[in-house]
């Protein structure tokens, strides 16, 4: 099993545990059927790493640098995708692009390797 799959499995397990904890504290009338996605069925706050605070930072792609790239890389790692050996470095290179393509494919959105508004939403909230 690849590290990406192990990381993805750990992220899913973490989300499931989080969802059950939330559901256990909810009244029975508020319980809904879980969805098969990277996000739990109950509403949760969007995920932020702290590099770029905007809900939808600027579009980033291969060759981009800076805090918006760091935010995307951190979120990709949060969801279990490998951005390369240097990790969150603010440089959008081929490994970050491959990770973006992988999460786009996993979530069934357009696969282009570019982090635009739809991909930012997936990175913040899950599939």
Q: Can you characterise this structure?
A:
This protein has helices at residues 3-24, 67-78, 94-107, 117-125. The chain has 127 residues and is mainly alpha-helical. It is globular, with a radius of gyration of 15 Å. It starts with a helix and ends with a helix.
List the helices and strands and how they pair.
Layout: H1 3-24, H2 67-78, H3 94-107, H4 117-125
Structural class: mainly alpha
- Give the rounded overall mean pLDDT: 77
- Quick one: how many beta strands? 0
Count of DSSP H/I helices: 4
Give the topology string: H per helix, E per strand. HHHH
Uncertain ranges: 15-37
- Terminal CA distance: 22 Å
- The amount of beta strand, in percent, is under 5%
Name some characteristics of this structure.
mainly alpha, 127 residues, 45% helix
A few lines on this structure:
This protein has 4 helices and no strands.
């Amino acid at each position: 099993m690849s590290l990406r799959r192990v990381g993805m499995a750990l992220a899913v397990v973490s989300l499931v545990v989080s969802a059950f904890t939330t559901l256990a504290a909810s009244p029975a009338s508020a319980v809904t059927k879980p969805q098969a996605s990277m996000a739990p069925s109950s509403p949760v706050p969007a995920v932020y790493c702290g590099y770029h605070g905007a809900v939808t930072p600027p579009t980033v792609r291969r060759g981009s640098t800076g805090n918006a790239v760091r935010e995307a890389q951190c979120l990709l790692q949060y969801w279990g995708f490998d951005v390369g050996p240097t990790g969150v470095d603010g440089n959008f290179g081929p490994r970050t692009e491959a990770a973006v393509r992988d999460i786009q494919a996993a979530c069934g959105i357009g696969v282009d390797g570019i982090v635009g508004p739809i991909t930012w939403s997936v990175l913040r909230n899950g599939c």
